What does this fold into?
Amino acid sequence: MFLAAVLTAAIFYNAILFRSASFVLLGYACTALLLGSCIFLAYRVRTLHCRITFPVSIAECGRPLAARIFIENTSFLPCMKFKCLLEQKNRFLNKKRRKWLRGGMAAAGSSSFDYSVVINNYGSYELRLKKIRVYDLTGLFYADKRLSCSGSVQVLPAMQEIGVHLSEAARNFLGESDCYDEYRPGDDHSELFQVRPFQNGDKIQSVHWKLSAKSGELLVKENSFPKACPAVFLLEYQSGKQKTAEKANAYLVILASIAFSMMDAGCPFYAAWYSSSRRDAVRVRVDGEESLFLFLSSYLEEPFQEQGTLAETYREKYRGENYLYLLHFNEKLELWKNEDKIVQFQEKDWKETLSGLEIIL
It folds into this structure.
């Protein structure tokens, strides 16, 4: 529009300079076209409304993600041409990427347009429709309308099973916990595991006298076994412009594989990291598939901007907590167990190193 106005002014200048009636008529024609386009675009922007939806909230890396844009045209004139600017913000990497989606003709009333969006990196994404660009009937001039509709999509990292071997100390770790084993009794008197008939060798103190009196036979109560966490998994990654998406993908796949394998081996643990939004260390207990995906979803939600103080912050916040192993995985792709470095992954061959990794807890 600005260039057209400059061109029109140049035509009038030449008309005055050369005293040409043809240039004057051409200048009037360009002026009429500009005014008509401005009025049309102002009307079109006011009568066009747009929103975007995504049928799923979890997508696969590198696979097309279906997106549908709904156009509400409240005028009687069709919109011959438009484009939408879609912004992808990776919360974990704190990076943005923009892409123009080209649309066709939007008739009066409601219209919908389907697009295929490909996300090539792991993370939690905010997909925001930033603006819609509307063209006039000639297709030469356009006007932008800002939008504020958005949606969230998570691309969870792939998980590879690795060898995790638990010692007897880890399997029978005793500690305070609100979760209890469903398959074996223990010594926690605050929770009842089951009531069963009396057997030789049972202590007389374990007899449930009320139920025994009602049933007419001796019944014994068994206490529950608390499922305490023998391990803590600290995660430290500092995002920034200098961090590459390839290294971030490797970092996420490695930590997801370790977390999945520990869960699959029957080792409950706390996954902890520093939350920049809360400005404090946060943790999630992982002891099943549901809690594993909760941990991954929460971890991908925000960038982590502080480094080097997570272990101290965690010990200070959860002072007095007992555990056997402190696993620490950082942005250098180093995996530590207590004070010993187990392995350092290289960016070139980290997949081969991961496939042969074994962790003994």
The first strand starts at residue 48 and ends at 53. Helices lie at 2-18, 21-47, 168-171, 209-215, 245-264, 289-299, 310-317, 350-355.
